[in-house]
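*** Fold description ***
***
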Amino acid sequence: MQSDIEKVYPYVMRWWQIVVLIVLGAVLGVFATDTALHNDVGLIINGVVELGVGGATVFWWCLAGIMWLLPVLGLVGIIDKLKGGNRVAITAEGVFLPNPFWRKGEAYFSYKSVRDLTITTMKKARFLTIKTAGKNYTIVSNRFSRPEEFDEIIRTVADRSNI
């Protein structure tokens, strides 16, 4: 199947996105961790949910944990970028997509298996969800070097899937 690849699009995080994840996550993580360590007051969320000292401390520890995941995602982005090879590859019969970092190889779906295409927009990012007979795949626009590449993939999959 490798020999019939028609077009390849690199699919990786940009360096500025990685830096933002690491720096912002670390700063917010330090703040939330410090607040959790030194908390001695309750917390009222939106004037509706009232937490005592214990509940507020748990809230701040949970928030700190979430914030510390951001630098971890940034490090995953660095590893992903350095290992290279993440791509979306168009073939005559289907599309190769990168698997998550914890899985080896690539995912593949054929155009015949596509049941539905959905485009969702959140701020500047667009998400293409491809529903197939066996699985759903999502492609994010901000992983491509140019917005036109994302649009080309949408057109190609839509045209060849006969949806």
Remarks:
- The helical segments are 15-37, 53-83, 147-161.
- Strands lie at 5-10, 43-45, 49-51, 87-91, 94-98, 106-110, 114-122, 125-132, 136-140.
